[in-house]
């Protein structure tokens, strides 16, 4: 059985009233959801509260889940909306800067660079690149920032992002392209690359 098929089976059991099946889904995705929400809500205690609220909302909405998307895609959409609603109720906006967790850095393309950065010059350059990327992301409109975050940091497919953002896949591709171009525009002077090259 694939991961998606296992989730689907657990959802069906949970929809029939099997609380243990939903607990298994919570155990499976709790850390992933917390990591996602920690990029939107900075306070760890608040992240726990919002994560719990997201799972409660998911449990209540479970009868409406039809399996048209993967369970975690549906869950991520609920989690993001819960975080946005929470921040709006607090009179705050989701932060634009994104800090990679160590395990994310290991899996990211620039993880190689950061692990090999042994000289002070390389470390400074690495820090400047990270700050430039964060400030470039700060300046992005929310829909571009969300799309690039889900793609580059969460590693989601275009289909999954389209499902989460509730828009066509072409729109997702366009948003990610525009976000990458905006970030590249800020990185070019730092990296000394020409306009015809992205990085």
Overview of the structural elements:
With 199 residues, the chain is mainly alpha-helical. The protein folds into 2 domains: 3-89, Rna Polymerase Sigma Factor, Chain: A (Orthogonal Bundle), CATH 1.10.1740; 102-191, Winged helix-like DNA-binding domain superfamily/Winged helix DNA-binding domain (Arc Repressor Mutant, subunit A), CATH 1.10.10.10. 72% of the residues lie in helices and 0% in strands. The protein has 10 helices and no strands. The protein has helices spanning 3-15, 19-37, 44-61, 71-89, 102-107, 111-116, 120-139, 142-153, 158-165, 169-191. Helix 2 packs across helix 3, helix 2 crosses helix 4 and helix 9 (158-165) packs across helix 10. Residues 96-118 have low confidence and may be disordered.
Question: What is the percentage of strand-forming residues?
Answer: under 5%
Major sheet description: none
- What is the helix fraction of residues, given as a range? over 70%
- At the fourth level of CATH, the homologous superfamily of the largest domain is Winged helix-like DNA-binding domain superfamily/Winged helix DNA-binding domain
User: Looking at CATH, which topology of the largest domain would you report?
Assistant: Arc Repressor Mutant, subunit A
Helix-strand pattern? HHHHHHHHHH
């Amino acid at each position: 059985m694939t991961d998606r098929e296992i989730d689907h089976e657990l959802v069906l059991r949970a929809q029939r009233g099997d609380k243990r099946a939903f607990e298994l889904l919570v155990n499976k995705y709790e850390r992933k959801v917390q990591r996602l929400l920690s990029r939107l809500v900075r306070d760890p205690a608040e992240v726990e509260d919002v994560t719990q609220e997201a799972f409660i909302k998911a449990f209540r909405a479970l009868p409406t889940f039809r399996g048209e998307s993967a369970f975690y895609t549906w869950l991520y959409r609920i989690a993001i909306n819960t975080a946005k609603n929470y921040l709006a109720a607090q009179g705050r906006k989701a932060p634009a800067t994104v800090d990679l967790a160590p395990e994310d850095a290991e899996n990211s393309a620039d993880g190689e660079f950061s692990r090999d950065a042994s000289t002070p010059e390389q470390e400074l350059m690495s820090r400047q690149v990270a700050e430039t990327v964060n400030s470039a992301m700060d300046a992005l409109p929310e829909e571009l920032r969300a799309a690039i975050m889900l793609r580059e940091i969460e590693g989601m497919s275009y289909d999954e992002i389209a499902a989460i953002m509730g828009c066509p896949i072409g729109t997702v591709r366009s948003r990610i392209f525009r976000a990458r171009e905006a970030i590249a525009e800020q990185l070019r002077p730092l990296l000394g690359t020409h306009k015809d090259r992205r990085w």
